[in-house]
Amino acid sequence: METHWDRVMQKSAEVFGDFQHSTGIQRKELLYKIAEVLESLGDALLQTAAEETNLPLARFAGERARTCTQMRLFGDVAAEGSWTQAVIDTAIPDRKPMPKPDMRKMLVPIGPVVVFGASNFPLAYAAPGGDTVSALAAGCTVVVKGHPAHPRTSALVNAAIQEAAVQCGWPAEVFQLVEDDSFECGKYLTQHDHTAAVGFTGSLSGGRAIFDYAQQREVPIPVFAEMGSTNPVLLLRDALQHQAPAIAKALAGSITLGVGQFCTNPGIILGIRSSILDHFTSLLAIELSLIPSFRMLHMGIYQQYTTKLSSMLDTNGVETIYHARQEGQMVASAVLARVDGDYFEKNPSLHHEVFGPFSMIISCKNMAQLTRIWQQLHGQLTTTLYCSEKDLKAHPELGGIARSLAGRIVFNSVPTGVEVTHATVHGGPYPATTDSRFTSVGTDAILRWARPVCWQDCPDAWLPPALQNVNPLGIQRKVNGEFTRTAL
Fold first, then answer.
1. Residue 2 is a catalytic residue
2. What angle do CA 319, 320, 326 make, to 5 degrees?
């Protein structure tokens, strides 16, 4: 029996038939137009998002600006075209003992993409977020399963994107929003025959469920799930000795930023037991006490935070250093805890993320224990080192460990605040993500929604423009092993 969900996916596949052949210039026009329409909504969009999430209006002004900047950046990437990784190896007909064929390859859109919108960034990781933007830039149609925490915001965005699509001459259904918070809907969309790939931002349990649904299909599909992280911070001795006040202030701001509802929140802090670490701990508690508490996004996140927090603080060996007084419904208390390295190693339950304004200091007896614990925290979006040149010279092994643990290694600054650039990596080994080879932020996010195709001895007129001899798009291509924009 046909359902609404089925009709949505059928339409997405139908529109993809044409949209996959759009040029980079056409996709740039679409993404620029979406940004323009979103900006034209003015304060109405920002006020709606603020009302639905308990976050301030200024936060959404910045978030919309980031989202629209990201749209224009991906539009530029689509138009420039080198992201398709066009490669040409020309034929050598007289090669002995056998002729060499003409071989040409490039990335092509993978198909309709289903995106699960996140609750903590209604404008940057939900309906109009990085998954949607990068998929459209790649030439894929998009179906977003809206998050139930901000339905009115998602509806406004849906209307804006569809209006932009129509203005650019595309069917409105190049983008579609499904508003249904049931598990059945998520499973159905993931396992629908027309779904070619899935993007997800959220919890480990949610991401893993979606991943498993995709593998249970007759034809498995890729799931690019970003599932959070404890983002361990290392405090090395020389840096801490000379910069403790500044580090404490920076980390307090990062721990409580957005009421701790960032996937890059620094949830674990590693240091070597000493009077210096004790002094830093006191400073961090003071800095946290100066930051007011606010309401969390919705009751679900608040209940998860308080439940996990209680479990963490009730664990043997965990000492509460600072716990802000709670005032008001859904107000999240900032919390700083401390545990001895021996207790931490013996209790794996302490290694998991507490999503909210919480961080735990691990007091290690020596550098050997610190690095051992750090390595146990595998699968991170980020890891941060507060260090001096003296620290790095004394511990050269830290570089290799950091690279094996996380997708982004931060030096002497906080991990929150993910810049959208060509070099950004927002990913990491499992369980941070389901595929550490890709990023969900930055221009390389487009690579998730494409697959390589090779044309062998194909007539020039049948080739995609990116591979034709005259290079009508003017893109950079690798021709016989050398990068060039020159026509053949």
1. no
2. 160
